[in-house]
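Exam prep: given the inputs below (a chain plus fructose -6-phosphate), describe the expected output before reading on.
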Amino acid sequence: MKIISVESYRKLSRFGANLIAAQIAVKPRSVLGLATGSSPVGIYRDLIDRYRAGELDFSEVTSINLDEYIGLSPDHPQSYRRFMQENLFDHVNIDPARTFVPNGLAPDLDAECEAYDKRISDLGGIDLQLLGIGLDGHIGFNEPSDAFMKPTHVAELHQSTITANSRFFANEDEVPRRAISMGVGGIMQARKILLVANGIAKRTIVDRAFNGPITPRIPASILQLHPDVTVIYSME
Ligand code: F6R
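Solution:
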């Protein structure tokens, strides 16, 4: 595991975008596992700039997102599908038919979860998985628990995650209580992992997750067992 500290969010974003751009350059048909939240926004902006400058081509890329809130339609302002459209997909030449986000309105959620894992394996697995980390150590919506959840599953959000995510909603009551999330199995099978964390508030959890014991109480700690993880941390 490489842990790289940088002094600014701008540098975090630049460096993260470098790794993703390199992945696409080396393998134009890459499968990228993508994340939402505030941490990757700068990376997406940087990737858009490179695309506009003619330096990056998404035409053969496939993307598969980590998670989606249950109960939000794809065009809901806070859905993760909409987030991805606004922050990346609408601004680059990725084929819309090759962008996958779980369907939070699926009538049969278990079937949706199973189909999502099948899709990942049909795609040949994820080449590069981008992750953020929650203040409680969650990755995707794999919240602290007694055991690591391997498959894609329906996750109950913990109170600390509901509170943290309420900044994007009018109030805490509007934050969905459940989400579909890729499990740690799908994440750990990615060939490369890039985790980005920024802000002083994340310092303790980054330290506990990557320098402490591996435990499902801190889901991100399992990444210590992955052979190719880069963590970029900025205190800004
Ligand atoms: C988002 C996701 C979450 C976030 C995490 C950190 O798709 O899966 O695990 O990565 O909650 O969010 P930010 O970056 O907003 O601090």
